[in-house]
Amino acid sequence: xxxxxxxxxxxxxxxxxxxxxxxxxxxxxxxxxxxxxxxxxxxxxxxxxxxxxxxxxxxxxxxxxxxxxxxxxxxxxxxxxxxxxxxxxxxxxxxxxxxxxxxxxxxxxxxxxxxxxxxxxxxxxxxxxxxxxxxxxxxxxxxxxxxxxxxxxxxxxxxxxxxxxxxxxxxxxxxxxxxxxxxxxxxxxxxxxxxxxxxxxxxxxxxxxxxxxxxxxxxxxxxxxxxxxxxxxxxxxxxxxxxxxxxxxxxxxxxxxxxxxxxxxxxxxxxxxxxxxxxxxxxxxxxxxxxxxxxxxxxxxxxxxxxxxxxxxxxxxxxxxxxxxxxxxxxxxxxxxxxxxx
Length: 342
Hints:
single chain; alpha/beta; five-stranded mixed sheet; 24 strands; 18% helix; elongated
């Protein structure tokens, strides 16, 4: 189930078209993204709409392009300005972290994208010059890595740069890469592809925006070609001034974030389908008989001795948990020498 809303103004039965509690719309006649969660959205059809008409401004036609029936490409936004917790503590990229069934975070993306028919579409993963994690985890994967022009390009700028080479009417599916996709991705993708808009944002029932959206390549031309440009705070308002933007609300999110090691462990626990205690032991790791490991991950090069207890933790490469040692809610990085509490 999903609901479609046009991102223009609030509507109530007593006071249609006016802002709540005296709040004003921005200069474009559209809601700013920082106000998004405080507003109720106008239900809309696929009929042409005049933006600004309901707020006393001169009616301005919203440009609506013909939306292709399939995605011409997929862009996974992975670039970051600084090292994340996985890199600093475990010396590993989040994209190569193991999941159930011998999969990894990046291979799950490939699996889910193939299921929605994106097998033939180019999949581009962005990276920052200061953080080459995606490239190191993609050997043998049919993904193309795009390196940001500068370390401080921002998500909006990186998206614009990565979309170069696509035709203006090409529809792109864009997702934050540091997430684990699930079977709901297909529902979102099909609904967004069928929506007659230049930018289609998605949210869950609690109006939390999700890092999965569809955008027409030509709409990204309004994003500056140089300098920093955040997507939500800067690129979306720029696109909304000249193009049609819609918000679709879905019952279930198609992704679960893995920005922190605690997020990753939560996903491992949820995927414990065989009742094995949510334990993942990567090839090359050693867990001795007699060790007690529960809801934890031991990465290649990690060692857990007999008599050790490891609960809700990640044992990184080069780390050794000795006999009698108890590790609870920690990420232990042997090579980095860092122990992080989760």
